[in-house]
From TrEMBL:
Keyword Cell cycle: no
GO biological process, one term: cholesterol metabolic process
Sequence ranges assigned to domain FAD-binding FR-type in this UniProt record: 10-116
Protein name per UniProt: 3-ketosteroid-9-alpha-monooxygenase, ferredoxin reductase component
Source organism per UniProt: Rhodococcus coprophilus
Length: 351
């Protein structure tokens, strides 16, 4: 049994694992018990993820992000689904070690891979364990909206299909609203952009959400571009391994008098509230907001998870690492708050 008693930072909490469900030979779901006093802190949106602190003999711990496969609209408790990867320390440790009754340190839900509304139709793409945030959106759309949902789901073979029974039950329950299209590499080979474009063509007017390995995502992006789907209708979830420690408390950066005198100003809108702040050139947007006690959304602070994504309405920033954003996202004004530093003297930003 693994036991964690005290969290390593003020943002994280220790949760008890209430159940471990074997989904396939190499994938397990971990269900968490959330005590009543943490219900508000762990309220989440479909498509968001949790960051888990996994013990490591070499480094003390590693931080890994796992999507919530549960929906707050259909499931009693939050659960993440983890698929074992050959070189994945975190996924192997969880699949081999974690059991009901264990405790593990967790950061609150984060991420922006979630629909703003369920009042329209969706086309969803998942590959392998990329189904996890996608099925949360799928279940929420079916129960909270009235539109149609089509899922295009790629796997190696039939035995690799995570949530096969759940998807079968949902198609029976919503026969006129849900369509599931399976793509099995063992039968059809690797999909091409042209093949996915042919499957997605009837749904070009819908909103698209996708999650899966990099090559799969590239293929879907190309397919949707081929059928003329506008870029603002396409949403992708990308995870990279975190090298830092997002569980450590944030340390305010010291600002010299010279830096303060040269600071930019920024108007930030978050959750309907507007904050007017000074922004020293060497600090990130997340830095200055945390220093003012503002509850800014962030997780990794490395530019790898997208939790702090926001939009520049006026002004210009520079970013050290923004690989999680597509060039089209950046062109549309999206930035990462944990990487953004001001270039212009005044900026206006919206979360």
């Amino acid at each position: 049994m693994t036991t964690v008693e005290v969290p390593h930072g003020s943002r994280s909490v220790v949760l008890t694992v209430s159940a471990v469900v074997e989904e396939t030979a190499d994938a397990k779901s971990i269900v968490f018990a959330v005590p009543d006093e943490l219900r508000d802190k762990f309220a989440y949106k479909p498509g968001q993820f949790l960051t888990l602190r996994i013990p490591s003999e070499r480094t003390g711990s590693v931080a890994r992000c796992y999507s919530l496969a549960s929906s707050p609209h259909t499931d009693d408790a939050p659960k993440v689904t983890v698929k074992r990867t050959s070189d994945g320390y975190g996924s192997n440790w969880l699949c081999d070690t974690i059991a009901a009754g264990d405790t593990i340190e967790v950061l609150p839900p984060a991420g922006v891979f979630t629909p703003k509304s369920f009042d329209h139709d969706f086309v969803l793409f998942g590959a392998g364990s990329g189904i996890t945030p996608v099925i949360a959106i799928l279940k929420s759309a079916l129960t909270q909206g009235s539109g149609k949902v089509t899922l295009i789901y790629a796997n190696r073979d039939e035995a690799s299909v995570i949530f096969a029974e759940e998807l079968r039950a949902l198609t029976e329950k919503y026969p006129t609203r849900l369509t599931v299209i399976h793509w099995l590499e063992s039968v059809q080979g690797l999909p091409s952009a042209d093949q996915f474009a042919a499957l997605a063509a009837p749904y070009a007017e819908r909103e698209a959400f996708m999650c899966g390995p990099g090559p799969f995502m590239d293929t879907v992006h190309q397919a949707l571009q081929n059928i003329g789907m506008p870029r603002n209708q396409v949403h992708a979830e990308v995870f990279n391994s975190l090298s830092g420690d997002p569980f450590a408390d944030h340390t305010p950066v010291e600002v010299s008098d010279e830096e303060a005198a040269d600071a930019a100003t920024v108007e930030v809108e978050l959750d309907g509230e507007v904050h007017n702040l000074t922004w020293p050139r060497k600090q990130t947007l997340v830095d200055i907001m945390l220093a003012k006690g503002i509850d800014v959304p962030y997780s990794c602070q490395e530019g790898e998870c997208g939790s702090c994504a926001c939009t520049v309405l006026e002004g210009k920033v520079e970013m050290e690492n923004c690989d999680v954003l597509d060039p089209e996202d950046i062109a549309a004004g999206y930035i990462l708050g944990c990487q953004a530093r001001p270039v212009t003297d005044h900026l206006k930003i919206e979360f």
